[in-house]
């Protein structure tokens, strides 16, 4: 593993002429192009001329299920030094109306974040760090903990003091040192732990989000899989927090077109909670990055006060749009998905919510894919609420089924 | 979908000469061979002569991830009338010591039960039932609810009054009518709802477990996938409650050998909680079925007072053994898996726990696979416990990391 990456260097997303060697991976964005007013991420460049022609047709090692996961796409990923857990290879589930749902709850820690952390923990191994440090209130932290454990590295998670009940157990499960601290303390502590303990930081460290140079690369595999399974869709609707997933999905499609393996790139729709929406605000105001006040929302996985330039690139270069589904729309989409057998957390329903609230003036040419990022077990309300014992007498049970609209059989 | 099944009829597991038409599927075992002292299940027979030679090499529709799931194996399954959710296709994750874990938490409702319910809900559609009814305290019920919702059928779950907190939310998620009733009331109510509302029963209705005729067939796909990915292993360790999974896995391997696609069948090890263990007791006492007192165990997914003849068939015909890991062994295996990045519920760790407690006199020739049935989100303790805010001062954080055995970097 990790031997056949075609990664060559890092480049600024603000200016492709600003280049850095591949190692060490930049964890604070692009220092040369960023300023106090805007933070620019870097991305990874590859030797595209050497990508095999059958890139999209190559099956996964071991017939598709060998547990090595992203290795199928190793040529266009950073070196995968960390062992895999069978991340990726998630199904496209077709809803009754023909919309496809890319069910990312089928990853090793049941969210899309595993694609990112396979890459970031590989980076930590690559630089010889004894551990990773991550500021996260949920999926990112647990996923980092799982991949660190698998790779034999330590992990510190700077988490939220008030995670949902099941999420708390999840964060603790993989042996990470979990420190619930106030939000304002998380980023300075990440810096300090990175500096004083030599731990590799796998979450953001800049004013506007830039994140880890290698992380978003892992999300490109979502696009590769969609094309391998379905061809190029007309549009992809992506739950959007800091836009790493959005950017990765866009870049994956853009690479396939560049390689001549496909002819076009789908329109990318960012789906942020209406209570916030820094990417929508940046696009509206003609800025690269901006900050907003975030109001009340239960979509805690994607409530962000600042955007990343990455998301702006994905939306503008694909001819997409920034959508702002509110909590009611997300709840509606969550219920719609549950009614089709898919239980997702509220943030994960933002993609379908965006589609369902799309103005009728928008046209999409081709199949539509909504990314559902994570399972309902991570939801805010999961593990709360009441559950009263039912009267087991037949009369009571019968009445309850009748009240639920069920009908006795005709005989 | 559902057009290319080679299923022909149902047969008694007690006597293969006792046959029934394929429809309707039997939901109360084999009436002709069962008696008050022993309940015998039926299984499905197929026109094996017509199985395509490339059965194991045929990729899944749509390149492996199209969301149709078990359809890849449709010739050797009952007709799959119910739409899929991309069940199956789960990864084999290789642990540090070379043992493989078949991670069934990667299914649509994050347990192996989805393979069963694709088949049982297909049966419900096949008989024209308006809904399904299931007695279950967990994974089975939620999975049935998801597949029923996907198929447009109603679902009644007769559940436990005291499920783990996150499990309660899970059971409620798919719009099923969930009735928490005392254990003793569940089976009579299942019968009555089946009779008076015409709902198709997808859980057991006999004194000793027989279950649904089509259900265990779905589990054969675990064996097909293992062989497609790895070849025939030396042994498979299976968390065992009523033994449907155990039997299905054995039957899948046995079919491949019968078809000449493989040369042998691995040894099947049943892994029941030491607090119960009716299959181990039946084997010890030379009985086909028996009942035991079940003591205290947190492995609530597999604590069963009676066994099924199915499990006995799997263990004896494969030259396997009945193992009885206790809760401490299961906790040890659960911790070992978490340390490799896999968080499973306690019951799901029974397979690895069985392997780890195997007497050294047992030899296994070839790779070992442990089936991990379900995610840690379903565990009894998930969503409980405390989580105190940490002191965010650097001195306190530093002390905590040092206490956890982390070391400052040398500079």
Automatic annotation (TrEMBL), chains A, B:
SUPFAM superfamilies: Tryptophan synthase beta subunit-like PLP-dependent enzymes (SSF53686). The keyword Lyase applies. Its cofactor is pyridoxal 5'-phosphate. Transmembrane segments: none annotated. It comes from the Bacteria. Residues 85-373 form the Tryptophan synthase beta chain-like PALP domain. GO terms for molecular function: L-serine ammonia-lyase activity; threonine deaminase activity. Keywords: Lyase, Pyridoxal phosphate. GO terms for biological process: isoleucine biosynthetic process; L-serine catabolic process; L-threonine catabolic process. It comes from Streptomyces oceani. This is Threonine synthase.
